[in-house]
Amino acid sequence: xxxxxxxxxxxxxxxxxxxxxxxxxxxxxxxxxxxxxxxxxxxxxxxxxxxxxxxxxxxxxxxxxxxxxxxxxxxxxxxxxxxxxxxxxxxxxxxxxxxxxxxxxxxxxxxxxxxxxxxxxxxxxxxxxxxxxxxxxxxxxxxxxxxxxxxxxxxxxxxxxxxxxxxxxxxxxxxxxxxxxxx
Length: 183
Known about the structure:
mainly beta; Jelly Rolls; six-stranded mixed sheet; six-stranded antiparallel sheet
């Protein structure tokens, strides 16, 4: 696995170190030992799959608050997405900054976000599927979100959202007071 830290402290783009021959390639897409060697939480509580029918489907940005904060490792297994993360750690040098990258079935890359980040994506193709590993179980009532178009964050998507859930459309404007109460 090849770990490249993003512009956000503690968040990594992860590539498969491909060993290839005439058959194709082999490489690890998950290794707890390598995760830990890079200072990342290697606990897996859940592995989730999300499938979206239409290009331009926006999901997120989602996170869980204490005591159920989670890390996520996201990989696109069919189609392609623009995956984005937002640093919501008030004491971080990169607080309220975001990072985005294309994840696809062709590039095999993954994006790791540590605790205290929100994560979301927009599909770049019809019939797209992602798989994501989380370090915490889903905890109803502790899940929250940030709107992709919140002016305090300024995310720039490569395609216009076409489908957004009512919940994701209606997250309130970001307020740091909410995070301080939750952490």
